[in-house]
Structure formats: C-alpha cells, structure tokens
Amino acid sequence: MDIRVKVLFVCSHNKWRSLTAEKIFSGYEGFEVRSAGTEDAARIKLTSGHVGWADVIFAMEKKHIRRINDKFRDLLLGKQLICLDIPDDYRFMDEELIEILKGRVAEYLDITE
C-alpha cells in the first residue's frame, strides 16, 4: 500500500511562498501536497477541510501559526504545525526561496527527489 504524508503549506495570500512550496514538493515521492492562504483575498483560502486533510502543516510565519491555532484549534490534535519562519520577501519560484524551503522542510521531513 502506498502511504503518503499529506503536507499543507500556508502563507497569507497563497500566491508566492506557499504556492512555490506546493509546486516544488508535489514532485516528491511519498507526499501529497497542497497550499492555502490565511487572508480573505487568498488565491485559495485556508479552510477546515485543508486542516483536517493535512498530516503536517508548514506555516511561513508566526502570524500564520496564530491564525491557524485561533481558527482551527479543534482540528489540530495529532497534527504537526511548524513555522518555517520565511518572510514575505520572495516572488513565486524565486531561486533563493526554493533553497530556503528545501533546507527548512528537510529538517522535518525525509525529502528526496
């Protein structure tokens, strides 16, 4: 049976950081990857469905952790909620952002392309 870890990446607007993370990590073996944003104007707005689906949630900043905890606390039991501490200084698929994401995520997940 194919066991896959469900990974959710969260930033504010789901346009640059979390969308980049979804794009680069969706090609990795053993993972299902989605992304969403915490703001009302997000490309894909974070819902209880996203949080319920995920095994591991990577938030880009502490404010995203707070928002997830405030809104979805009841759904977080047994899930890993991790802050990657990546500021909103990067554009979609920025090479520096990709390197930072790979380095930080590798601290928590066994990622091999």
Describe this structure in words.
This protein is an alpha/beta fold. It has a single domain, classed as Response regulator (Rossmann fold, 3-Layer(aba) Sandwich), CATH 3.40.50.2300. 34% of the residues lie in helices and 19% in strands. Strand 3, helix 3 and strand 4 form a beta-alpha-beta unit. The longest helix has 12 residues. The chain is globular.
In short:
With 113 residues, the chain is an alpha/beta fold. The protein has helices at residues 17-25, 48-53, 62-72, 95-106, and strands spanning 5-11, 31-37, 56-59, 80-83.
**Alpha carbon gyration radius:** 13 Å
C-alpha termini separation: 20 Å
CATH superfamily: Response regulator
Mean pLDDT: 95
- Strand portion, in percent? 15-25%
Tally of separate helices: 4
Reported CATH architecture: 3-Layer(aba) Sandwich
What helical percentage do the residues reach?
A: 25-40%
Strand order of the largest sheet: 2-1-3-4
Structural class: alpha/beta
Protein name: Protein-tyrosine-phosphatase
InterPro entries: Ptyr_pPase, Ptyr_pPase_sf, UCP029416_PTP
Summary tags:
single chain; 113 residues; Rossmann fold; four-stranded parallel sheet; 4 strands; globular; Ptyr_pPase; UCP029416_PTP; Ptyr_pPase_sf
Topology:
Layout: E1 5-11, H1 17-25, E2 31-37, H2 48-53, E3 56-59, H3 62-72, E4 80-83, H4 95-106
Parallel strand pairs: 1-2, 1-3, 3-4
